[in-house]
Design goal:
The complex is a heterodimer.
Chain A lengths: L12 H7 L5 H6 L2 E4 L9 H5 L5 E2 L8 E2 L19 E9 L2 E8 L10 E5 L5 E12 L5 E8 L8 E4 L3
Chain B lengths: L1 H4 L14 E6 L2 E6 L4 H7 L6 E2 L6 E2 L12 E4 L2 E5 L10 E3 L15 E13 L3 H12 L4 E4 L28 H14 L3 E3 L2 E6 L6 E9 L2 E14 L3 E3 L12 E3 H10 L7 E5 L3 H12 L3 E7 L8 H8 L5 E3 L1 E6 L8 E5 L12 E3 L3 E4 L3 E3 L2 H5 L4 E4 L4 E4 L12 E3 L9 H19 L3 H19 L5 H21 L1
Parallel strand pairs in B: 1-7, 8-9, 8-13, 9-10, 13-26, 15-22, 16-17, 16-22, 17-18
Antiparallel strand pairs in B: 1-2, 3-4, 5-6, 5-7, 11-12, 12-13, 14-23, 19-20, 20-21, 24-25
Classes of the chains: A mainly beta, B alpha/beta.
Chain lengths: 165, 489
């Protein structure tokens, strides 16, 4: 196993940029698109079948998936299928100054629409406030939560923390 | 007290508890629910100490939760050394700490009958490997019987709440406990028999005929089963590895798998503030599951300078705020009767602790997730030839590509043949089941096809770097099998 990848103890944006082909600025500006944060050779393929548009591809069972950003509509149906909870949908064309980020969520309590939450980056660091815009109960009890965050946080915000009280 | 220890709401699981019952611990009334184990009911009631160790009189409590470690032995209805983690609690039961040695009762009130059985295929263990071996051999026309000493079938699948990797044929995308349900339904559909609470206690085969003795628990009585079988598939799984450090015996230091059983099968909280030791997949996954059960995770530590498990699993817990501390080990656990704090320490590149880097953690729960060792007692007692295979976690019985050991008609599948993961276990079970059908002439063509397909699936899995070492270890076992068989000739 290439252990230098795992020296941080988790996936970071720098590793991601190096390892996967992210959507271009132009594609991001057009609207919602899925980003698969899966960089290792895991024998796993449910994401391929989950995509109704044939946008997700795997060369073999163990190669990391690739995504055709032109075919991807950002529908979010792959988010709750991925066993690694590694797929996120980013919509940079949501609102002036705001991006809409959809993430998988399997904790309690499930936040409500309109609820203000804190948003965290990949390392678990709190990076700002977010508003819950949509919640959807997906396959197998996994929720998909869509949050509005400041645009400059779109590539960092990957988790939420419910505020107490 | 009870409300704090039981999990009533869970994001994934819906705990279906049985009828509320009362039982006694040293004459004190304890509440429990039917269908849960005595040990789970005790932890749920705040009882952590189950007994004292023989040599140093140290407290003992929950550890593995699946009948393997002997940490939970108690006197149950007068009978000593009951493995309380796999005995279902019943109303009116009398449970006692048995002292340092389990003395036999003054007069025996053990009711036991004896029964002889014959089956074409006996499968020991009902995890993913055992169920698949049973389903496949039954589907191809053989008479099968699966026995398991646990009260619930499904092996370790029943406590897995995460969605599985893999491909569709091995149920990818479904959660472990859901896969167990599907496999059991499949077994029933083909008319495969299975017995729970039935422990295989010894192999007594001779002259090429196989015989296993097993003890079946029937409520308060027992039945000694003498099972004659043409073929045996041993799928006895694995034990959790242990770690040496001061205080490691204290109740509250639990196996990560043991906690999954307590928390995800029985819906009982193991503690409130946890430290996880080991950043392999089991350690990373248990971190996520603890958060789902409402347990705070103070840290996950790992002695190596990198995470051993998949980055996606590590990322799941990192972004929820669990600190992953690499190059750290546990120095000691504090407490008298149970865990009350721990000291962790940084290690250098040779894994030696660096003095002055100690940190105190306020925790009441330590999870040991540093790997597994194959549960090889049964194949070794049957005198299957063995070898030491580093890649597979220790001494392993050797076997050929059909998963057959050096004893004709005795097969292995799953972790007992070397530690891997659930998809591998299923495929090996399928290969063993199909190999038996092929040999016995039951739908041999279909059997050969199933075997071939399963081999090619296994090869695909083993291209993954995480399974490369396992593949190498298993190749060594097969090579050794050939050497031994050639020498015999």
């Amino acid at each position: 196993m290439k252990n230098e990848l795992r020296e941080m103890g988790y996936l970071t944006y720098d590793i991601l940029r190096e390892k996967i082909n992210l959507p271009s600025e132009g594609r991001l500006a057009k609207g919602p698109v899925a980003i698969i944060e899966c960089t290792e050779d895991i024998p796993c393929d449910p994401c391929v079948e989950a995509c109704k548009f044939g946008a997700i591809n795997k060369e073999s069972l163990i190669t990391p998936p690739t995504i055709d950003y032109e075919k991807c509509t950002g529908c979010t149906l792959c988010i709750d299928i991925c066993p690694g909870l590694a797929i996120f949908v980013v919509n940079m064309n949501y609102k002036e100054g705001k991006a809409l980020i959809s993430i998988p969520y399997e904790m309690l309590p499930v936040p409500k629409r309109g609820e203000k939450v804190e948003t965290l980056d990949r390392s678990g660091k709190k990076i700002g406030k977010a508003e819950v815009i949509k919640t959807r109960k997906g396959k197998g009890e996994t929720f998909v939560i869509s949050i509005a965050v400041d645009k400059n946080l779109a590539m960092q915000a990957r988790s939420i923390k419910i505020q107490k009280g | 007290m009870e409300k704090a220890q039981r999990i009533w709401r869970h994001p994934i699981l819906d705990f279906k508890r049985g009828r509320k019952i009362n039982f006694q611990l040293k004459g004190k009334r304890i509440e429990g629910y039917e269908n849960e184990s005595i040990a789970a009911a005790l932890v749920a009631s705040g009882v952590k100490v189950f007994g004292k160790s023989k040599r140093f009189n140290h407290p003992r409590g929950w550890f593995c939760g699946i009948g393997k470690c002997s940490s939970c032995l108690m006197r149950v209805n007068g009978i000593p050394s009951g493995r309380t983690c796999i005995i279902p609690v019943r109303g009116g039961m009398k449970v006692e700490l048995q002292g340092r040695e389990g003395a036999l009762p003054d007069e025996s009130n053990i009711k036991a009958e004896r029964k002889e059985e014959y089956v074409q295929v006996l499968v020991i263990g009902s995890g993913p490997a055992g169920l698949e071996a049973g389903i496949t051999s039954r589907k191809l026309g053989l008479g099968t019987l699966i026995i398991d000493e646990n009260p619930i079938s499904g092996g370790q699948l029943i406590k897995q709440t995460h969605k599985f990797f893999g491909s569709k044929k091995e149920y990818a995308g479904l959660r472990g406990f859901e896969i167990a349900k599907i496999m059991l339904a499949e077994l029933k559909k083909y008319g495969g028999r299975y017995l729970t609470e039935t422990s295989a206690i010894g192999y007594y085969g001779k002259d090429g005929k196989h015989k296993f003795l097993a003890v079946q628990k029937l409520g308060d009585s027992y039945r000694l089963l003498e099972i004659n079988a043409d073929n045996i598939v041993i799928t006895s799984g694995a034990n959790e590895n242990y770690l040496s450090f001061p205080g490691n015996y204290l109740p509250g230091v639990y196996g990560a798998g043991g906690v999954q059983t307590l928390m995800n099968v029985y819906g009982v909280k193991p503690g409130s503030k946890a430290l996880i030791v080991g950043a392999g997949n089991v350690g990373l996954i248990i971190g996520y599951q603890l958060l789902q059960a409402g347990v705070e995770v103070k840290a996950l530590i790992e002695a190596m300078p990198y995470v051993g498990g998949y980055l996606v699993h590590a990322s799941k817990i990192a972004r929820l705020g669990i600190p992953i501390l690499l190059r750290h080990t546990i120095k000691e656990v504090k407490g008298k009767e149970c865990v009350n704090g721990a000291t962790i320490i940084e290690v250098d590149e040779n894994k030696h602790p660096i003095e002055g880097t100690e940190k105190e953690l306020d925790i009441d729960l330590v999870l040991i997730a540093i790997g597994l060792s194959a549960s090889t007692k049964i194949p070794f007692q049957a005198e299957c030839e063995k070898m030491f295979v580093q890649e597979l976690g220790g001494w392993i019985p050797i076997y050929n590509e059909n998963m057959e050991t050096t004893i004709d008609g005795v097969y292995l599948a799953g972790d007992v043949s070397g530690i891997a993961e659930a998809s591998t276990a299923m495929l090996e079970g399928r290969i063993a089941g199909a190999a038996i059908a092929e040999k016995e002439g039951y739908n041999p063509e279909q059997a050969r096809r199933i075997k071939k397909d399963s081999f090619s699936e296994l090869c695909k899995l083993r291209e993954s770097s995480s399974l490369k070492a396992v593949a190498e270890g298993k190749r060594k076992c097969q090579q050794k099998w050939n050497e031994v068989k050639n020498y015999e000739k």
